[in-house]
Amino acid sequence: MDDLLAARSQMAMSLAFHIIFAAIGIAMPLLMTIAEWKWLRTKDEIYLTLAKRWAKGTAILFAVGAVSGTVLSFELGLLWPGFMGYAGSIIGMPFSLEGFAFFTEAIFLGIYLYGWQRVPPRAHLFAGAMVALSGALSGIFVVIANAWMNAPRGFRLVDGKPVDIDPIAAMMNPAALPQTLHMTLAAYAATGFVVAGIHAFMLLRDPRNRFHKAALAIAFVVGGVTAILQPLSGDLLAKTVAVTQPVKLAAFEGQFQTEQGASFRIGGIPDETAGVTRYAIEVPYALSILAYGDPNATVKGLNDFRADERPPVAIVHIAFQIMVACGVAMMLIALWGAWRYLRARRNKRRLESKWFLRLLVAAAPLGFIAIETGWVVTEVGRQPWIIYGVMRTSEAVTPMPGLIVPFITFTLLYILLAIVTIWLLLRQVAASPRDAEPLAKEAQLVA
Amino acid sequence: MSLETIIAGVMIASLVLYALLGGADYGGGVWDLFAFGPRARRQRALIAEAISPVWEANHVWLILVIVILFTAFPPAFATIATALHIPITLLLIGIVLRGTAFTFRTYDVQRDDVQRRWSLVFSIASIITPVLLGITLGAIASGTIRIVDRVVVNGFFRSWLAPFPFAVGFFALALFAFLAAVYLTLETRERELQEDFRRRALVSGVAVGILALTVFVLAGTGAPTVRAGISRTWWALILHVCTAVFAVGAFYALWMRQYKLARICAAAQVTLILLGWAFAQFPHLVEPDITIFSAAAPRITLQLLLGALVLGALLLFPSYYYLFRVFKRGHKEAQEAQ
Questions:
Q1: Mutate which of B67, B159, B286, B303 to disrupt the A interface (most A C-beta within 10 Å)?
Q2: Which of B97, B103, B150 is nearest residue A399 as measured by Cβ atoms?
Q3: Cβ atoms B293, B283 nearer than 8 A
Q4: Does A12 touch chain B (CB under 8 A)?
Q5: A322, A317, A315: which is closest to A301 by C-alpha?
Q6: Least CA distance to A116: which residue of chain B?
Q7: Of A400, A421, B255, B270, which has fewest CB within 10 angstroms of its CB?
């Protein structure tokens, strides 16, 4: 493994690890705040227990997210000094704003987790809402910086040095809005589905448990609503990519030939040497419509780009297919759930059927699979550039030799953390209340 | 005062706050390892109680330092991260292990053997991380970090694998342990526990003094320009006299069991040590090639950053104050108990 590949692997691994905790850190505080709000409104002990249970999970995940995020902020320089040597002056702004959002998040999480007995109920709920809000803002600021790498604006390069720097224009780059929208919705959808899946699993074993029913309802509403909205933001993002990074769009679709009225491919395996994508189901005109809103629009194919400016097509295409498939499945499940809910209300029937719960358990990981593959699409799809069209990844890498050592070290460290985190979360789930009866006692116990 | 100087000042202020708040959290980990005697269990519980609600917020000061560094002085960040790749990587591993082990300990089985295992990881990481932080800062001050045409002139080891950076590392550790012990005297109402941490504060205070002298002596060859900067101006000398006064004051206050006064003196002492270093190195960010002026981002970036810092501070300080008011209310009670 050469040093560039090791550096890219370490960055990819660090991001892939961190994004799970980051996404949960955005969405979980919303879930626990909703639960607490319902407790204050209904005075039903179940919601208090739920808020406290979810807060415990959030505490564990937030700690891992905070330290793995710290690692990333240093890794920008440790691995890509050529990039940070000047990019900081252009996109440092969103990072500094993120710093303050992260501050707010950590402060109010401290109050939320340890302040149950120390602050009045409304102040406590406010702390939860602040964690949820600042968590979302943190994510948005970081994604804005990433969007700039895809659609760099706000500077000119003269002899390899940036001039006429405009940090505001850099933040307002065309990819910023669609990317932040897409990632924020993804965080809620993915977390909502995982949490719903866990509580669905517990309900299958203990069908009368009101605690898990209440948890499932909140998680599924948050996950479901965002899963239904997500394809819209995805469409907006794809249309932006079509304009700002046409070669990436071609890689999404494995589109080698420039074509008018291009088809949308479902599945298929791109063969880069032969320049064709085989075994795909093709929907005529659909790609032109999706990318440009016009069935006769011309989609530029990979063959019309220089070979050394194309991303690895197969990885990007397959990751894109997986992401879209997961997203569509989640949307359909959410729609079905909504329909079931409306029907159950009218006929006074039970909402949770065994099959629907089993489906939710099976769908639990879909959101995170979509997030991981989605970032593969974004990041690998931008290669060979670190700043699209401006700086190559190979120009940015550190001269430090032996980068495989830190790559392996951090990989082992993160595997260890993942195992412990999962083990601790399983303990929390296993210790959840068995049935509705002893809940009042339970609420006092976790207080 | 130039914009570069103001922003560098904010960066140093964040570093000072990281040392005063985050540093003390590391110090707590040190005393977790050295908890012994009949009250070992209560000492550990007190430390955990003191740092649980605040350590994550305190940790963000370090993030702020890094973000200001790479936004306002990007080439300096690139140079430091390149030349000090190894100690910074080790520092990160320490940060990860400290934070996660502490959290895992809170949420894992409350059985002695399990808790002890996490305590060990937490406390050892709390010792190693400040040392590495000090090594990094010491190397930056040493004047051996030079990058010419993407080549690290002194290699990836020589700038930090030297007596001076290591002395700074142990100095940082002693300071953090000292701060933590002083703060902890005010976290409890139990007289015996106060006495435990008073003794620890006195012992680590002596260590601070010895290591300060060691750092000063080693700086003669290890960081000659910074050492020369220490006595460059008359007000630098006044600064060092003040540092010494507060150091003695902290000892006196601890001896007299005036813990609130001790806390003020200890915090002032640490602040002045960091300021003394910053003034001695001014205007260099990385000795000897990079100054805050040569590395500065364009004016517009600095202006916007300063605006963001002011706005952020306006939001941050009220919430931070609230956090400490909620969880550090015990102080008054501790004082009254005396």
A1: B67
A2: B150
A3: yes
A4: no
A5: A317
A6: B326
A7: B255
Mutation choice for B interface testing from A74, A116, A398, A427 by most B CBs within 10 A: A74
A56 interface with B at CB cutoff 8 Å: yes
Task: Tell me which residue of B132, B117, B20 sits closest to B86, measured CA to CA.
Answer: B132
Residue B1 token pair: 């005062």
Query: Helix crossing, A3-42 with A176-205: angle to 10°?
Result: 60
Residue-level pLDDT at B124: 96
Interchain pair A99, B56: CB under 8 A: no
Contact B323 A168 (CB under 8 A): no
For B191-227, the pLDDT digits (tens) are 999 999 999 999 999 999 999 999 999 988 888 888 8
CA dist A35 and B22 (Å) reads 32
Q: What pLDDT is stored for residue A344 in this prediction?
A: 77
Closest CA to A386 of A175, A166, A152, A156: A152
How many whole angstroms separate alpha carbon A58 and alpha carbon A194? Answer: 13
Q: Which helix (H) or strand (E) holds B211?
A: helix B191-222
- Would you call A93 exposed, middle or buried from its count of C-beta atoms within 10 A (0-12, 13-18, 19+)? buried
In this prediction, residue A385 carries a pLDDT of 94
Question: Does A398 contact chain B (CB < 8 Å)?
Answer: yes
Which residue in B156, B143, B41 sits closest to B87, CA to CA?
A: B156
Q: Do A417 and B96 touch (CB under 8 A)?
A: yes
Instruction: Say how far apart CA B14 and CA B220 lie, in whole Å.
Output: 28
Element (H, E) at B44: helix B40-51
Position A255, amino acid: Q
Is B71 within 8 Å of A68 when comparing Cβ atoms? no
| Phi and psi torsions of A205, nearest 5° | -85, -25
Which tokens hold the place of B122? 């937490």
Q: Which residues of A touch B321 (CB under 8 A)?
A: none
Contact between chains at B327 and A114 (C-beta distance less than 8 A): yes
Please tell me the total number of residues recorded for chain B in this structure.
Answer: 338
CA–chain centroid gap for A374, Å, is 8
H or E stretch covering A148: helix A121-150
Q: Are residues A70 and B80, on separate chains, in Cβ contact within 8 Å?
A: no
Distance from CA of B99 to the nearest CA of A (A): 7
In this structure, how many other beta carbons lie within 10 angstroms of the beta carbon of residue B169? 25
Please report the residues numbered 145 through 184 in chain A whose beta carbons come closer than 8 angstroms to any beta carbon of chain B: 165-168
Chain mean pLDDT for chain B: 90
Instruction: Tell me the mean pLDDT in the region B81-100.
Output: 94
ipTM of the complex: 0.91
- pLDDT band with cut points at 50, 70 and 90 for residue B337: very low
Chain A nearest-CA distance from B26, in A, is: 14
